[in-house]
Amino acid sequence: MSGKIQSKMFVEPGTILDILKKEVDNGFSHLVTVTAVDLKESIELIYHLSDLKGNIKHVSTRIPRDKPEIATVTTLTPGADFYEREITDLFGISFYGKQTTTGRFILPECYPPGSPPPLLKNVDSNQVKDTLGKQETCEFKATTLHAPLSPESVVVPVGPYHPAFKEPEYFSLVIDGERIVKAFLRIGFVHRGIEKAAETRSYLRDIFLLERVCGICSASHSWCFVEAVEKLLGVEPPSRATYLRTIVAELERIHSHSLWLGLVGYWIGFESMFMWVWGIREEIMNLMEEISGNRVHKSFVTIGGVRRDVSDSLLRKIQEITKEFGKQFENLLDTLVSSEEVIERTKGIGKYDIEVARKFCTVGPVRRAAGELFDVRKLEPYGAYTEVDFEVPTEEEGDVYSLIKIRVKEVLESINIIHQLIEKMPSGNPVPSRYFMGTVPEGEAYGRIEAPRGELFYYVKANNTHNPYRVKIRTPTLANIQLVANILEGYSISDFPVIVTSIDPCFSCMDRVTVINSSTGEKTVLPVKLLKEKRRR
Amino acid sequence: MTSINSKLGFRKKSLWVYHFNSGGCNGCDIEFVASLTPRFDLERYGVQLVPSPRHADVLVVTGPVTKNSEGALKTIYDQIPEPKIVVAFGTCACSGGVFNNCYNILGGADKVVPVDIKVPGCPPKPEALVELLKKLTLGD
Predict the structure, then answer these.
(1) What pTM does this model have?
(2) Domains of chain B with bracketed CATH
(3) Residue A201: which domain range?
(4) Is residue A521, in this structure, part of any structural domain at all?
């Protein structure tokens, strides 16, 4: 569930590491994200911590603007690395005690070094745009190694525009024969600067902007934002609206997971799997279009309800089509997933255990594949998830094969959820009489929902105006991607696309504010060493 | 459309397409990929998705152009042999769309490369791309 942030634990910047350590020992071991807010006289850092029972805590500290530095918490939670680096680039805060961080992380390389960071309140978006526009070239720094690992090692650059990716990203692989010795990531070709843009638009317009963070989980983004705003306003949507939102979110999960299953088939060289799964997925896309008017950006959720009602006949149609889809999907996937080709290419590939998954703050199916029931729908139920009886599948192995199995089961479970919801659908009018155009009273709230890729987190700060003061987005891919660079080591280069795809990366989500630049030598980014013994095969 | 058709001249043939995501939200990309799958099946018009720009006749750009992707878009455009057709697929590729005033966005694809055809929509349906490429291949 999302909620208004009623109480924050205020601490001195110097004590942050000790306080977090205490909280982690108390069970608040999952660092959801770190939010930075420019309060003009100081910069506030909020560490959102969650336990595995659905409680959440917000630890806040204020850093003076003229001396923006604080100790890193990566020693405690390695997964905090990318959250901190994002803040370094966008707010200019340096985190000491880290072996990493110099140079650009999130912004293009040509962002002038002396310029103030873009998310500070006194920086104008258009100025940044002008400055960037004037730069002639903007070559990203290819990751270079200070010392080659061995004379036989070869560095293979992959990307940023490579046939193996649907989205731009850059991998630098150190190869010894066929084996990947080390992998470095440089992502950020899709960084647009949405968080800044959200501050300049009204709440209603923000819904449309934020759902365009990602075209695959677009309803999740708008819903998560709306949850937070509704909490600030004290608005409770009609129950029919929460049911309909849940149905659309589950349809989205079905479409997103089938899309992923198709892609996995494609990357292991099993093109029939890709074609078949994408072929039947069209039925779900048609349903989405019929419900909302658009196949992809549904703009379905709005503050105080949904934008249009769904008729009873359409609900029956959804029931029929999803039922048939479930049957065909199960049939198809039973055959595909049990085929030698898929098993050979995925079983035991990209293995990680639950300790590692926790360390990097992974979320969603990636966490569940290693055996932990970590699902916001169960932990902090929102929408209509309290009304239905469903299971969250988990697996023990933590390899690509168990990720496939989990996602197949989740699709079937989503169909089950949709059917129960349609059976129980309450009557009433889910559409608010007019769209929300007003101001939002001062306060802070968070939204936390289970998007297809995992836990999605929004932080919204309002200041009694028409526009939000700050919107922070933490997408599931940002949490999961840190794992990938680590799992890659020790595997054959032909497994590379499969392993990268296995977490279902969505770079447009992640890059909306973030670039990941992991180079060695001057900076050893990911605590790779702790994984090495496990990785070597 | 006629002038674009004549751009291909005597080299008119099955079109090979290269897809470039210059910073989009993925919405256009999944619709682009969907047009290749059985329901729409672009390949029945001889259209093929190629992994290298050097083999392509048509460049399909999706998404607004970010500062980071600007250089790559230019390079890829230059790598496609003449005659070539550039399609801006989706509102963002046409004009920058909803992201137009974001600080890391330069605007639509036409800020960087000459665009021949613009297909607006957020995202356009796969049918739009099928129809377009069909017209290019078969003529009006």
Answers:
(1) 0.90
(2) 2-138 (3.40.50.12280)
(3) 194-474
(4) no
